[in-house]
Amino acid sequence: MKKYISIIAITLVATILVSCEKFLERPPEGQLTEAEAFKTEANLSSFVNGIYTLVGDADFYGGRHQVLSELLADQYKGDRFTGDYSEIFRRQNSFFGGTRDGYYNKGYRVILDANVVLKNIALATTSKNLIEGQAKFFRGLAHFEMVRLFAQPWGFTAENTHLGIPIRTEVSLNSRTRSTVKEVYDLIISDLRAADSLLPDVAANGKFYSATKWAAKAYLAKVYFQQNNFAKAFQYSNEVIAGNKFTLDATFDKRFSKGLSTEGILVIADQVTPNQYNPGGDLRGNFRSDLGIPGFTFTDQYYNLATARAADLRKAWYSNTLQAGFNVLTKYNKNFFDLTLVHLTEMKLIRAEAGAETGGANLTVAIADINQLMTRAYGGTVFNLPLASSAALVISTTRNERELEMVGEGNRIQEIKRIGARSGVNIDRRGSFWNCPGLLLQFPKGENDANSSFTLNPEGGCF
Fold first, then answer.
1. CA angle, 240 then 243 then 247, to 5°
2. N or C: which end of the chain has fewer CB within 10 A?
């Protein structure tokens, strides 16, 4: 696990950087200037380590990202949601809502801290590639996740000239207008490719608790898959799988565990002890079902779909008796677990669908990938696809298995959008079109207050 050291120094620097840019020239009394905080490579290394904490924070990947995504999707009932949870679930994109604001601010805080590192990269010597690669990786990751929730998907317009999110590549809080989705994705890909070339093959401790080139490649696979660029998605997912650094867990239930999974490509490790860093708090707070009725409970439609096959071992992720009368998820019913950001199962799913889309020899690879996952899920080969299966069958099967494998991980809403942009087909079970305005999160009101020319998302919902 990366050690989150120099927290006091990091906090002091962060305090400065959330003020206006002029404060960097003359800070308030008692606070460190940026020049005072960053004097050595060790200072910079400690600061970049702090970004892992931000990414795993409850306001970002520690649950808020998944919560917002699941609220917009179609697997859950809405009768237990209140406040801005209810508004987002109803697909009404109002600019009021602390849940969304916290996520937006934390995402840009990740980007800001990455930019601070890059601004001071001249301090780095022996670890320059590692420090720069981590900063570019996290800057690309944060832009990617936010553009997927705050903008229409890639493919919404022919040239992807529709509005995305503000791009930030400098240490500044000056107002920025929204860049196009193409411009945002160009930056994301540039950052991730740079990270791929800069980051090490294996982390210093031999664990994947810090970013390596494999994490960069995995996110490139995710980005290209979101774009429906199947040739590139196959290429990068194949590079990760063929790298042989990760192996599929023998059973489905180790992905969110304490040190038991072998397929985490990037993992934020839990420190276990209560006074140390414990990621995933917002996942437990919203989905955990063994201590009471969670806010998120499945519709009968999805629950029946997910538990339809008696042989499916993943049925253990669900219960309609643990909390009588409610269909609940058990995936996060743990006091502690490592927070897996990207994993080998997802790479297999991407390579399977991309391989079927690109055809030829790739189709054979795709069939082997989805059959490997299904053998694990069903405890045998009874549901495996024939070796001569059509591309269409592989694609539909892979999409079904993706939904079951990645339940509660914030995946479903992006599939609704991606498949809609790919083919114009609306797969949303709640009856919305894939490109309706309510499937976007509205930008915080503060963006428009700071810059009257900032373009908010269209008002309106999906019903």
1. 80
2. C
The set of residues, in sequence order, having a beta carbon less than 8 Å from that of 411 and lying 6+ positions away, is 69, 402, 403
The position carrying tokens 């305090």 is 15
Question: Which residue is associated with the tokens 């592989």?
Answer: 394
Question: pLDDT per residue over 264-279, tens digit each?
Answer: 999 998 876 656 778 8
- Reference 214, options 226, 230, 202, 229; nearest CA is 202
d(CA 318, CA 301): 13
**Domains located in the chain, CATH noted:** 7-285+335-429 (1.25.40.390)
Question: Which tokens in the block code for residue 36?
Answer: 């005072």
382 token code pair = 């009874």
User: In this structure, are residues 136 and 211 in contact, taking their beta carbons and an 8 Å threshold?
Assistant: no
Q: Report pTM.
A: 0.93
Judge contact between 69 and 414, C-beta under 8 A.
Answer: yes
Structure-block tokens of residue 349: 């799913």
| Residues 133-149 pLDDT 10s | 999 999 999 999 999 99
305: exposed, middle or buried (Cβ count in 10 Å: 0-12, 13-18, 19+) = middle
Q: E strands, 238-357, where?
A: 264-268, 318-319, 328-329, 339-343
What 369-374 contacts at long range (C-beta under 8 Å, 24+ apart), as own/partner pairs, is 370/394, 370/397, 370/398, 370/401, 372/248, 372/348, 373/248, 373/345, 373/348, 373/349, 373/401, 373/405, 374/401
Phi, psi of 253 (to 5 degrees): -100, 10
How many other β-carbons are positioned within 10 Å of the β-carbon of residue 162? 18
Give the torsion sign (CA, 255, 67, 352, 392). Answer: positive
Q: Which two tokens stand for residue 127?
A: 């670890």
Q: Name the pairing type of β-strands 339-343 and 264-268.
A: antiparallel
Distances (CA, A) of 111 to 40, 48, 231, 252, 254: 21, 11, 29, 33, 31
Amino acid letter, residue 112: L
Count, residues in the chain: 463
